[in-house]
Amino acid sequence: MIHPRCGNSRIGSCLAAMTGCVVMAIVGAACNGRETEDAKSSAAVVLRVGVAQFSTTNPGAGLRGLSQNLTIETLLRPSPDGRLQPVLADRWTVSADGDVVTLHIKGGMKFHDGSLLDPPALAAALPDAMRSLMGPLIDDVLSVRPVLPDQVEVRFRNASPLLLEGLGTQVSKAGSAAVGTGPYMATSNPAEFRANTAYYLGAPSIGRIAISNYPSARAAWAELLRDQLDMLYEVGNDALDSMEASNNVAVFTITRPYQHMVVLNTQSRQLQSKDTRRALNLAIDRPAIVKEALNGHGVASNGPVAPRYWALPPDAPTLDYDPQRAADLVHGARSKSSSATTFTCLVAPDAVSERLALALKRQLQAIGVSMNVEQLPQDRLFERMARRDYDAALIEGLSGPTLLRAYFFWHANTPFNNGGWGNATIDAAFERARRATSEKEYIEAVGGLQRTFMDDPPAIFLAWSVTSRAVSRRFVVPHVDAGRDVLSTLRLWKPANDSLRASRN
After folding, report:
1. pLDDT averaged over the chain?
2. Residue range 256-465, CATH number
3. Which residues are 394's β-sheet partners?
4. Which helix (H) or strand (E) covers residue 360, if one does?
């Protein structure tokens, strides 16, 4: 029946309007249904990740570190040369004096509890976030305040680039350290994560991540090859060559901001002598260490500052291999103490650490130094270091790509330096970088810091760590730029076919 108000000329338009409404309703229902199905389908996809000998207590590594990387995002992100790039802040400006940074914040970002990450929320969260990264340097942050609907102002005591690196911190909600903005959310199970369906860049295709801890990388690797895992978080150097030849696994290699080093307890009687510690560094042939102990998968170290760091001057001192000079220094130190140079090194019971320890022991023997090896699980190794109950310990230490991360590891008053690493001379060198007020002055301070580590070494620096992620080709992984970790694109990974979804239901 035609409505009486519709004349002949209006019949078509009325029918068209009615038809349009019906079509829109049908399309809307279909879209809602498809979105619901897509959400259900994504939620059903599980990424099974294998890790090897992960610590459950070390706050900077292990499961806790992995959890933070998945759930907590950074305000800014350091590039391989240490300069900052946008993440939660899409851009920023620096005042003419260099001591005020104005951060421009993206809109629509939410914490995992549904609350907005707006300028007031960011200003509330930043002081604690920066304190966790900067340690005592937080005293140089004078104020953090929202200034416009999309801006936050951070005012520093001076313009040192070292202080600005504090903006590369992870941001969690004020008062809730586990509530972040990342594409994944923590659960009551520390080894399981679920997708953040309200993520501001779009919900991840993988609905759940399940972590399994294995006694060795080789054991996890075997599970990956048997299709019992979808990803090996870190591929051991002994497995990398075999992995790269596999047709069923894609391997993504990165140089990590960690380096293999033997941290030296300068309070230990055996290693108090500065000359002895210099001799230990001079005795090490680092390219040979990389080749023999790391199967060529590493970058020989030249000290604590990342080799690509923008402020490391080209004429900065380097770690030379000089076994004759090392032997002379050891002989001189021995004549003063009338005892042989012997120390004990704590080593984790994994294949890479064992090979590194063997290569070190052999090279040090050539200059008359005896290094005894004591194997301990990682958790117990770090406990011993925290009690200062050690001579030396072979670890991977965070040292880059920014100088602030090296400061965080080595300065006596930072929260992660629980092993008594470093010394007063090194602290003073870091303070000179802290007080630098221009890039020229800062570059000079970085060069001076490198020289201090050579003259009074708190560690035997070996090699920057190279690691790989191995991912089953059952998942499609987007291309990543050189130097970036493939995990940075995790929210975009997709199953290669629907059979994977079906098999996980």
Report:
1. 85
2. 3.10.105.10
3. 262
4. helix 351-365
Q: Are 385 and 411 in contact (CB under 8 A)?
A: no
Helix (H) or strand (E) holding 394: strand 392-398
Look at residue 336 in the predicted model and tell me its pLDDT: 62
Each residue's pLDDT tens digit, 148-177: 999 999 999 988 999 999 999 999 999 888
* Tens-place pLDDT, residues 286-317: 999 999 999 898 999 989 999 999 999 999 98
CB 401 within 8 A of CB 78: yes
Report the C-alpha gap between 417 and 426 in whole angstroms.
Answer: 13
Select the more confidently predicted residue: 302 or 63.
302
Select the more confidently predicted residue: 97 or 239.
97
Please give the residue that has the higher pLDDT: either 340 or 501. 340
Between the CA atoms of 470, 475, 478 and 484, what dihedral angle is there, to the nearest 10 degrees?
-20
Phi then psi dihedrals of residue 43, to 5 deg: -60, -30
Q: How many CB atoms lie within 10 A of CB 246?
A: 15
Residue range 73-171 forms a domain whose CATH class is alpha beta
Question: Do the beta carbons of residue 429 and residue 454 sit within 8 Å?
Answer: no
Burial class (CB in 10 A: 0-12, 13-18, 19+), 194: middle
* Element (DSSP H or E) covering residue 213: strand 208-214
- Give burial (CB, 10 Å; 0-12/13-18/19+) of 212: middle
Separation between Cα atoms, residue 498 and residue 501, nearest integer Å: 5
